[in-house]
Design a protein that fits this description.
Largest sheet: none
Order of helices and strands: HHHH
Number of domains: 1
Pfam family, one: DUF4345
InterPro entries: DUF4345
Number of strands: 0
Strand content: under 5%
Helix content: over 70%
Radius of gyration: 17 Å
Keywords: Membrane, Transmembrane, Transmembrane helix
Transmembrane segments: 12-33, 45-64, 76-94, 100-119
Structural class: mainly alpha
Protein name: DUF4345 domain-containing protein
């Protein structure tokens, strides 16, 4: 179990780098990522959403120590990511196919995050069985 737990921790650490890096970039540089000129209000909203993305990534990192005991936090974060992914999917349906980076984000949000959550639940259950934790 310990080897699989460490592999999960390493995987989450790597995957969470995506929201941390893109969120931090968005907070610091705003809409510059796309090169589109937007209103000050849209720029402010973009930076706010980037801050949330940064926070989600940091909170995923906070699950790494003792990941087998952080099921509730992991599930909540996964739910937030999936809801965001569903919003992105609605946008895809209504406005068309976004850039390859956005499709990659959609894949992480709707497939990778739920798979990691299921994996975390598996590790938590193995830990509970091994150590008699409820």
């Amino acid at each position: 179990m310990d080897r699989e737990r460490k592999l999960l921790q390493q995987t989450v650490a790597i995957v969470a780098t995506i929201p941390v890096a893109t969120g931090l970039y968005g907070v610091l540089f705003g809409q510059a990522l796309t090169g589109d000129a937007v209103s000050i209000s849209a720029e402010s909203h973009f930076r706010f959403m980037s801050g949330l993305l940064l926070g989600i990534g940091l909170l995923f990192w906070s699950t790494l120590p003792g990941i087998e005991e952080k099921t509730n936090r992991f599930r909540l974060l996964t739910l937030l990511v999936v809801i965001g992914g569903l919003g992105r999917l609605v946008g895809l349906v209504l406005t068309g196919l976004p850039s390859l980076f956005m499709v990659g984000g959609l894949t992480v949000e709707l497939i990778v995050a739920p798979v990691l959550c299921l994996w975390q639940m598996r590790i938590a259950n193995l830990y509970a069985e091994e150590f008699g934790v409820a």
